[in-house]
Write a structure and sequence with these properties.
globular; binds 2'-deoxycytidine-5'-monophosphate; about 220 residues; Rossmann fold; 3-stranded antiparallel β-sheet; alpha/beta
Length: about 220
């Protein structure tokens, strides 16, 4: 079968990452988590003391950044100028900062080229917020995965439980705030592509979602 480009967009905690990993395994495809790239810019900006609304500072930072994904036995790892930042970018603080820097067109422009260059070989599942609308408008199959804010907060809380002392209420508040930032920004706002299949995962298991996607992809 022809190798495809598949996009999965949607808000935090909807299950995109787990679903994308499983789907790419089932299809023998690569998987790219584009949120990690925005998180990397946020982390590097924090290290450099650059504020998320300092466009000149962010532009300069991006021009010196070397971000690459590598795969090892732990899975997909992200290197920034050769240092492995995969674990450092998964904190609530970096989540909020990633959402803030992702609203800046200078950051989106830099990451647009990088993401498109990752698609030279077909057979890839791309996960993000604007994959089907802006980065790969010609993708072969597009999905938008959503779930209620409460469900998403509980899922995220379970993931973070061992790492932070956040309550489920705090996680929900941050998720709602991030949704609002990501949906209302002018540059490439989070929304379903017109030709995306929308799946509400509130009452579905990961495996149910993956099977629905496979049915849709394989027809
Ligand atoms: O998927 P994530 O939670 O790791 O993404 C972190 C932030 O990055 C998210 O709040 C918005 C931004 N993002 C984006 O604007 N576009 C993408 N394609 C992926 C993420």
């Amino acid at each position: 079968m022809k190798r495809l480009v598949i996009t999965i967009d949607g808000p935090a905690g909807a299950g995109k990452t787990t679903v994308s990993r499983k789907l790419s395994d089932r299809l023998g495809y690569k998987y790219i988590d584009t949120g990690a790239l925005y998180r990397a810019v946020a982390l590097e900006a924090q290290f450099a003391g650059i504020s998320p609304d300092d466009d000149t500072g962010l532009e300069h930072l991006c021009s010196k950044l070397g971000l690459i994904f590598v795969r090892d036995k732990r899975g997909l790892r992200l290197l920034s100028n050769n240092s492995d930042i995969t674990d450092q970018i998964r904190t609530p603080e970096i989540s909020m900062m990633a959402s803030a820097v992702s609203a800046r067109p200078v950051v989106r422009k830099y990451l647009l080229d990088l993401q498109r260059n990752m698609c030279r070989e077909k057979g890839v599942v791309f996960e993000g917020r604007d994959m089907g609308t802006v980065v790969f408008p010609d993708a072969d199959k597009k999905f938008y995965l959503k779930a209620s804010p409460k469900t998403r907060a509980i899922r995220r809380y379970k993931e973070l439980k061992s790492k932070t002392s956040q309550t489920v209420e705090k996680v929900e508040k941050e998720i709602r705030l991030r949704d609002e930032n990501d949906e209302k920004r002018e540059a490439a706002p989070m929304k379903p592509a017109d030709d995306a299949l929308i799946i509400d995962s509130t009452d579905l298991s990961i495996d149910d979602v993956v099977e629905m996607m496979l049915d849709y992809i394989l027809g």
